[in-house]
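tokens incoming
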């Protein structure tokens, strides 16, 4: 079991969403409450179990522990207390918080994304920095997006650095994967406008209509959105740079764009703070 956790931490490409690590009580609490996750195995220390909040969290984990039952009617080891040095080997941080879990997350097909009212999606095209990708997922969640679509070239959503950067928002909305062409075809059939943030665009983000069904795409940190996505986009938007700064970080750009969409939808009578 320990070897399994170490393999998952060291060889992410093999496991992807089927098995990844979640560390710390906050992310564990979010994973337990999420309709998207399955808790496969939980490692914790004696010190963590000795704290009141630790015992409460472990109790909640145990209630979701049906995922640890085998098909043969046998009970697999679901909760496992281990020494702190061993937990430190599994954890991806310098100061582990006493609990690490192996978690699974089913990837949603594009056609299965449930839209709450006027469709609102976020697309990540070749985002390579885990912190940026995790932050964009966090902002998408905060802005009320219906889901996030990951295009080829993006880093692994389920690597520890990305999971931590989401601050738990990974567990609040569906993640889908697609190619640029398949995504654009889906949007055309679904009546969703694809808007791509691009510094080469002429239309400022404040002049674009985000109150309609829309998907907002953000591209690679160095090269911006890919050619395929730009060519299939129905709108290219930019954030005006008034001062001397050359550009904005892609995660900052996503925050500006997505909250402009929130502002427009709020004042147009769409999704707002009370939704």
């Amino acid at each position: 079991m320990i070897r399994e956790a170490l393999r998952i931490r060291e060889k992410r490409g093999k496991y992807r969403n089927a098995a990844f690590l979640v560390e710390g009580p906050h992310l564990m609490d979010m994973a337990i409450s999420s309709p998207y996750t399955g808790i496969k195995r939980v490692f914790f220390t004696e010190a963590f179990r000795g704290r009141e909040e630790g015992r409460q969290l472990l109790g909640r984990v145990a209630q979701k522990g049906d995922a640890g039952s085998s098909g043969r009617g046998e009970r697999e080891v679901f909760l496992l207390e281990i020494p702190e040095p061993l937990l430190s080997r599994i954890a991806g941080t310098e100061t582990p918080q006493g609990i690490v879990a192996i978690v699974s997350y089913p990837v949603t097909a594009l056609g299965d994304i449930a839209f709450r009212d006027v469709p609102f999606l976020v697309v990540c095209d070749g985002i390579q920095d885990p912190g940026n990708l995790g932050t964009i997922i966090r902002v998408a969640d905060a802005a009320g997006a219906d889901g996030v679509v990951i295009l080829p070239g993006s880093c692994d959503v389920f690597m520890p650095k990305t999971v931590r950067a989401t601050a738990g928002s990974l567990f609040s909305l569906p993640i889908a994967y697609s190619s640029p062409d398949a995504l654009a075809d889906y949007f055309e059939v679904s009546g969703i406008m694809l808007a791509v943030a691009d510094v080469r665009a002429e239309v400022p983000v404040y002049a674009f209509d985000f109150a309609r069904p829309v998907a907002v795409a953000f591209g690679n940190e160095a090269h911006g959105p890919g050619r395929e996505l730009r060519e299939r986009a129905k709108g290219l938007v930019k954030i005006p740079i008034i001062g001397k700064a050359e550009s904005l970080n892609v995660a900052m750009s996503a925050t500006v764009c997505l909250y402009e969409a929130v502002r427009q939808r709020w004042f147009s009578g769409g999704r707002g703070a009370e939704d």
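note: The chain has a mean pLDDT of 89.
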